[in-house]
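dude i think i finally got it to work??
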Amino acid sequence: MNMDCIVIVFAKAPIAGFAKTRLAAAIGEDAAATLAARMIDETLRHAVAADVGSVILYCTPDVTHPVFVQAQATYSIPLAQQDEGDIGQRMYSAMTIALRDYPRAILIGTDIPALDAQAIRQAAQDLRQHPVVFIPAQDGGYVLTGLSRMIPEIFEGIDWSTSRVMEQTRNKLSQRGIRWIEYPPLRDIDAPEDLPFVPAEWLA
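look at this
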């Protein structure tokens, strides 16, 4: 294993009524929570299989949910609690801590079935030559960000959870003259219309 990269996985506790609430309108709160738990496990499996360095699971609202505790045991990874604030503040905090100890850091969520070990491996490799890598989301956000140095501006003044996230992030990088690598967009699973893109066995 290379030890100069860390993969940060952001996860929300798979609690009925708390996780994947938009999906719950179509499949029910319990099924949405079960799917969320499956996606956490699949994401961690790919993150570990990528073999690019350490993996850490950043949890919200805390680290005590049984799915998190089981993941820690299954994958031999540490758990951390996400900071307070919006998603930008929480990502900024996690990335700042990571880049103190590692020259490269990748941050991903848990709701992207197509984000596999090879994609993570490619991002880690490209971070050796580039300060920033992204995989955009088809809804206008992004599903992976990787940094080889801290760039606070990309976490500030962004309209999070809107279709403008990736566009605003690109503009901030361009204004600073920072070049980045961007891969083809992937679909994240947030709403009922995304369900056809979930592997059938995950919904069984």
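Residues 5-185 form a domain with the Spore Coat Polysaccharide Biosynthesis Protein SpsA; Chain A fold (CATH 3.90.550.10).
im so relieved honestly
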